[in-house]
């Protein structure tokens, strides 16, 4: 197996620029000559973060790649006529195979992040000239990020290589059982809970916190169907009083109010982090590629009646998620779109006055509204709705309809629902709340309704509950990286029973 080395280059960062750790055999620097100072250790962990927001080869993980696989591949999004990429179109139509470029790039980015985390975790403890407190914090940040990368990987592909002590290039690439991957995710997040509750100073904005680890644990246990632990960790986040719902939904996607009290952890984007002309956040380009015209952009709503008209006109989330009408500063007039545009990543201070795809808007990874909905869902699945579950979901609804969040008995509060009725309402609330936030495909797969829901707008099959292992990776170890069922080269049997719809 080829051995990887470290190439140090300037790249995008947690703030504006960082030391970007490229795994490459050329221009290598021996590890023993690199991890020497606190600056080296900090740069190494910043390199782990940078995979979230920077990818020179294509779009960043949280700046386009995951939107392709988790939103474009779901029921409510399709590719528009402005997309000239057959690879992206294949994702949108579920006609992809193991050679798909977007799937391969997502795999590469995720395991790049894991490899960088492994290097940091292994070498920072031995770095001199740095306090034990800072060492521990940096290692825990790397473990949080490794857990996040693995959490995406295990949901997208199922069994994946569990690499903990080396880089991807050095590892024996054998798929590990899903349960083993989740055990490691939980272990890493449990350790990351010891991170600070908050940070001070501009250089540390966006770093993982103990609260972010706890919130992600709640999501992990929800996906696993461990309702008791999902409830426990969601309650821990709520009782910490570190987070709250913001009053105005659009503020969540306003670059001037980002990293507020509702943002538990976000991928940090700044204008010009990829080049002087454009941000690395390609979500803005994909949703705005046709500008003020009725030509279709790269990404577009699949069915207006099913996914736009279901928003109440009084629901803030409608105009925060979609733009049917938008002010054009060049003509000093309101432009009306035939088909609504996805709104959340359009940076009106930059994109509307420029042809570039620049956007300073962060991509939320987990926010407080999701913790509330996690609590509500887990309680309902465990034993049916109770007062605590109603209060959690109703706080999200009150905010959406501009009622006081803490005042019970608003006209939009849910009450008196059966367990199944609550389940259906909860699932709809998650769609309304998290449009284009990298969660929809994950939700449909864990609810086992991916095919049933997506076939309302496009034709898919049960094989689409998992993505294929990229063929270029399988070529490195065809036996260890066996193919998922339903794709060329698969030897596995159909794993989906009648509960998968």
Any chance you could write out the topology, listing elements then pairs?
Blueprint: E1 6-11, E2 18-23, H1 38-53, H2 65-72, E3 77-79, H3 86-93, H4 101-123, H5 132-157, E4 160-161, E5 175-176, H6 178-192, H7 210-224, H8 227-239, E6 263-267, H9 283-288, E7 299-301, H10 304-307, H11 316-321, E8 322-328, E9 333-342, E10 363-367, H12 368-383, H13 387-400, H14 419-433, H15 440-446, H16 450-454, H17 471-474
Antiparallel strand pairs: 1-2, 3-7, 4-5, 6-10, 8-9
In short:
The chain is mainly alpha-helical and 501 residues long. It has 17 helices and ten strands. The protein is globular, with a radius of gyration of 22 Å.
List keywords for this structure.
mainly alpha, disordered N terminus, 40% helix, two-stranded antiparallel sheet, Serine Threonine Protein Phosphatase 5, Tetratricopeptide repeat, 501 residues, two-stranded antiparallel ribbon, 10 strands, 17 helices
Structural notes for this entry:
With 501 residues, the chain is mainly α. Among the domains are: 6-192, Serine Threonine Protein Phosphatase 5, Tetratricopeptide repeat (Alpha Horseshoe); 283-361, no CATH class. The chain has helices at residues 38-53, 65-72, 86-93, 101-123, 132-157, 178-192, 210-224, 227-239, 283-288, 304-307, 316-321, 368-383, 387-400, 419-433, 440-446, 450-454, 471-474; strands at residues 6-11, 18-23, 77-79, 160-161, 175-176, 263-267, 299-301, 322-328, 333-342, 363-367. The protein has a two-stranded antiparallel sheet. It has a two-stranded antiparallel sheet with strand order 3-7. Helix 5 packs antiparallel against helix 6 (178-192) and helix 12 packs antiparallel against helix 14. The longest helix is centred in the first third of the chain and has 26 residues, at 132-157. The radius of gyration is 22 Å and the shape is globular. The chain starts with 5 loop residues before the first strand and ends in a 27-residue tail after the last helix. Residues 1-29 have low confidence and may be disordered.
